[in-house]
Amino acid sequence: MRTIAIMNRVLKELIRDKRTLALMFVAPILIMLLMSVIFNTNSTTDVNVGTVAVTQKLNQEMGDIKHVAVKTYDTKAAAKRALQDEKIDAIIKKTGNTYDLTYANTDSSKTTAVKMAFKNAVTATSVDQLKSALKKSTTGMAKLQAQLMVMQKQQAASTPAATGNAAAAKQAAAAKAKSTTTATKSTSQQAPKITNHYVYGDKNTGYFAKMLPILMGFFVFFFVFLISGMALLKERTTGTLDRLLATPVKRSSIVFGYMLSYGILAVIQTVLIVLITVWLLGMEVVGNMASVVVINLILALVALAFGILLSTFANSEFQMMQFIPLVVIPQIFFSGIIPLDSMADWVKDISYIIPLKYSGDAVSDVIMRGTSIFDEGGNILVLLVFLVVLTFLNIIGLKRYRKV
After folding, report:
1. Cross-strand bridge partners of residue 103
2. pLDDT tens for each residue of 283-315
3. Where does residue 106 rank: exposed (0-12), middle (13-18), buried (19+ CB within 10 A)?
4. What's the predicted TM-score (pTM) here?
């Protein structure tokens, strides 16, 4: 009976806690639906290929392949600018019988797709060339056979003439064999030479290289968010924050004080995560390492302000943990770890309210393309807007706890 009594008490407490019920029953359904939308709409990889001095036949063969778009350029310099601006994923340049392929390689799945499309297009083109050569050879042999038959019909003449016809027939047969050999040799000599070049990494660079810059930001965001939220919650539950709010200190001073104190720890943590990720995992950084640190520091401050804001809505550490599935998990889905290119427009629109998307785009550009931090002003500006808005909401949020 005591066990039943304890069970009834716990159940009543749980039923009163609407947030816990929502976490147990609503959050899993929302996350599963979100995963379904993302993974079902992202089943293909679209690639754009730039070609220079490539035959129209090869361009047509590649263009006919699904999810492959071909753009022609007059010079390789123009194609390189398009590759740098992310308008294309690879460049194919033909010089004589040699094809030079240059891959951005920031996404190994796109690199693989380009290689497969080019291989299939070259195979199809070679088959067409072989058919054309064989057709010409067959036509030539048919003419020689017709001439041979005419000569054989004239063998009713004198024996010397017949001997001459036999010699002519032998000559025709030799010409036929030579024609076949020449057609086969010309076809075999047309096998192209292919050389591969990679702007980022090499042929062994996998998809994890694309994920790593975003994962770096995610861990910065997650741990700063969690620690700052928990710390301020402890300040509130122990009464420290109430005593501080009872003083004439301005709410803005309190918020800035907390952000500066936890911000110092966030700086150390961010630098540590970035350095360990780059050196321990051997990640190649094309751009400036300091730019990577600065962008992640701004993200850490955003996470700090976000954690402080959400901690005002929680009454315990358990309730603070309940925000993780609803706040942190969507950061993963819409940060760029899962490509958004082929998703529906309304799914892409959700990513624009995710701070991790902007830091992920900026860090990926610096690491993989060597972009300057000044060229990432748009992404950094959005992160600063997030920081200002969240800080302002924190100042307003403290008003509910001020007793005077």
Report:
1. 90, 198
2. 888 888 899 999 999 999 999 899 888 887 777
3. buried
4. 0.73
